């Protein structure tokens, strides 16, 4: 079914994630863009609209100095963990509005080692909050996970199973950072960071870049043998009562996440149900986050995660393959690039040419989800 | 040894500290937030507008001094600045949310690992966050096991 106002992914490119001191954020972005253009079989001159995002590694639109000064409109995005999805949204909307028929989205970042640096005043908080040692994202993830496990009767072993699957998938993926499989015991026995989360249940800030070429309607089918349709994409911010990072207080509950809103919106728009998803990407800043997001996005019920994991249902050959490239846990978290990494992996899976382990049975419906501070989420449904 | 509260705006000036009495002696000073006159939302620290509705006026609200642990974790590694290391250096500490009924407040938990659990009755206290250069002890709020609680 071809519709002239539908937007398709017709090419994707990626610079390997990890640590590589020999390249800058811009170097990686350029490589990802050239990879995506080659994959789509188009030249930079064919791109009529572009959007790029980076948290810390420079102004994305300056890439035109490397790619060619064609005069193309280029929108910079800085939207935390939703940066990648926001660049895709920006380009897709421009194509639908008739600005161009071919567009490009790119995201990249190169972070320093160690925990992300944060300042209290930037979040509208008093100095006391950071001075007394409460302003750490790792604490937030641990507190949210601890409460979630308690409310839904999930054991800490489930957290280890998430990490084990991530590193196993990463070990089979040429673009992942962490390629060493770990056992459940090794994950549980790794350094205690903030219980119930251990060191290997957290992702690390890293580096990487990814890019997509998008095209409108029939043009997509002229360019690409197997274009992937962007069936829906939604970005949401938090509403009252969501449990977010750096909150000195919370209302008594229930606590509803923007992930719930974004997921509901994309399934409604796509006319599909979570049960239709055959390959999924979920934000896995830490093992607990992925567990929570599995249910918040509707891929399973609250409390069903442990059995799902134990049965291998989230493995590449399972019922709902999750983070087939190892996600953030195996890839690291270059903030501006992560969202586009998710698209890259799902597109390649739906085209039957996954860089790592291919989901069997020719999957036709893919899903992506990101979540970040302070309470933003973006989801998409991709179909072939 | 002299001491001071880390941020006066977090605390009720009337409670726990009569003239000449240092904070921390006797009952600890109570936490103070704000309550919306329209929707009843209670926030901490105090703020001038309601995060939930546009209709209400915010008034000062002295928060309950006791509640139950709603969630908890441990800070194992020393945080980066602007965290201020306490006298004697960093030691792993617990943090969590305490359910005070009308609001959940994030706080340091002065609770030993063997005792800590969701649902544990706790009561407001103060702990030393760090020392000023002149040696003044800087106190922040925390919750400790409530030996009379749990009824
Ligand atoms: Zn209100």
Automatic annotation (TrEMBL), chain A:
GO MF terms listed in the record are: acyltransferase activity, transferring groups other than amino-acyl groups
Which residue numbers delimit the Thiolase C-terminal domain? 259-381
The lineage's top-level taxon is: Bacteria
This one is known as: Acetyl-CoA acetyltransferase
Q: Which InterPro entries match?
A: Thiolase (IPR002155), Thiolase-like (IPR016039), Thiolase_C_2 (IPR055140), Thiolase_N (IPR020616)
**PANTHER family listed in its UniProt record:** ACETYL-COA C-ACETYLTRANSFERASE, NON-SPECIFIC LIPID-TRANSFER PROTEIN-LIKE 2
- Which intervals hold domain Thiolase N-terminal? 7-172
- Keyword vocabulary terms for this entry: Transferase
Which Gene3D superfamilies does UniProt cross-reference here? 3.40.47.10
Q: Which CDD domains match?
A: SCP-x_thiolase
Q: Which organism is it from?
A: Streptomyces paradoxus
Question: Known Pfam families for this protein?
Answer: Thiolase_C_1 (PF22691), Thiolase_N (PF00108)
Automatic annotation (TrEMBL), chain B:
Question: Where is there biased composition of kind Basic and acidic residues?
Answer: 14-24
Domain (ChsH2 C-terminal OB-fold) ranges = 63-126
According to the record, the segments passing through the membrane are: none
Segments forming domain ChsH2 rubredoxin-like zinc ribbon: 25-58
| Top-level taxon of origin | Bacteria
Which InterPro entries has this protein been placed in?
A: ChsH2_C, ChsH2_Znr, NA-bd_OB-fold, Thioester_dehydratase-like
Stretch list, region Disordered: 1-30
Protein name, per record: Putative OB-fold protein
| Organism classification | Bacteria, Bacillati, Actinomycetota, Actinomycetes, Kitasatosporales
């Amino acid at each position: 079914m071809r519709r002239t106002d539908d937007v398709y992914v017709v090419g994707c490119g990626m610079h390997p994630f990890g640590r590589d001191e020999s390249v800058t954020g811009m170097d990686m972005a350029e490589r990802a863009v050239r990879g995506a253009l080659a994959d789509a079989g188009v030249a930079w001159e064919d791109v009529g609209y572009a959007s790029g995002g980076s948290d810390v590694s420079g102004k994305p639109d300056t890439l035109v100095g490397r790619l060619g000064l064609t005069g193309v409109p280029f929108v910079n995005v800085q939207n935390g963990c939703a940066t990648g999805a926001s660049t895709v949204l920006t380009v897709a909307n421009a194509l639908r509005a008739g600005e161009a028929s071919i567009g490009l989205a790119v995201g990249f970042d190169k972070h320093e080692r160690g925990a992300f640096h944060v300042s209290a005043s930037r979040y509208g908080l008093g100095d006391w909050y950071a001075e007394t040692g409460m302003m750490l994202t790792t604490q937030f993830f641990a507190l949210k996970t601890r409460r979630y496990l308690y409310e839904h009767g999930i054991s800490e072993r489930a957290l280890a199973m998430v990490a084990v699957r991530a590193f196993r998938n990463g070990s089979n993926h040429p673009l992942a950072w962490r390629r060493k499989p770990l056992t459940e015991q090794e994950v549980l026995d790794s350094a205690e960071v903030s219980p119930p989360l251990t060191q290997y249940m957290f992702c690390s800030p890293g580096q990487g870049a990814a890019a997509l070429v998008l095209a409108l309607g029939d043009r997509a089918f002229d360019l690409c043998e197997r274009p992937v349709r962007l069936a829906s994409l939604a970005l949401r911010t938090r509403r009252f009562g969501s449990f977010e990072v750096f909150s000195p207080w919370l209302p008594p509950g229930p606590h509803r996440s923007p992930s719930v809103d974004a997921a509901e919106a994309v399934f409604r728009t796509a006319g599909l149900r979570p049960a239709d998803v055959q390959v999924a990407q979920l934000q896995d800043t830490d093992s607990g986050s992925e567990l929570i997001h599995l249910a918040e996005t509707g891929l399973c019920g609250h409390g069903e995660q442990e059995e799902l994991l134990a049965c291998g249902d989230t493995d590449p050959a399972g019922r709902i393959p999750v983070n087939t490239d190892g996600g953030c846990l195996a890839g690291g978290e270059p903030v501006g690039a992560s969202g586009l990494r998710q698209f890259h992996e799902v597109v390649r899976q739906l085209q039957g040419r996954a860089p790592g382990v291919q989901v069997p049975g020719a999957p036709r419906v893919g899903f992506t989800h990101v979540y970040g501070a302070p309470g933003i989420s973006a989801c998409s449904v991709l179909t072939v | 040894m002299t001491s001071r509260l880390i941020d006066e705006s977090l605390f009720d000036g009337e409670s726990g500290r009569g003239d000449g009495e240092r904070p921390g002696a006797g009952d600890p000073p109570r936490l103070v937030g704000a309550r919306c006159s329209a929707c009843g939302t209670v926030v901490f620290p105090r703020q001038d507008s309601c995060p939930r509705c546009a209709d209400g006026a915010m008034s000062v609200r002295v928060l309950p001094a006791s509640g139950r642990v709603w969630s908890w974790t441990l800070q194992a590694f020393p945080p980066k600045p602007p965290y201020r290391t306490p006298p004697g250096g960093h030691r792993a500490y617990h943090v969590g949310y305490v359910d005070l009924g009308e609001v959940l407040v994030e706080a340091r938990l002065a609770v030993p690992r063997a005792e800590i659990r969701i649902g544990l009755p706790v009561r407001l206290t103060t702990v030393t966050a760090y020392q000023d250069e002149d040696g003044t002890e800087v106190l922040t709020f925390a919750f400790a096991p409530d030996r009379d609680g749990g009824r």
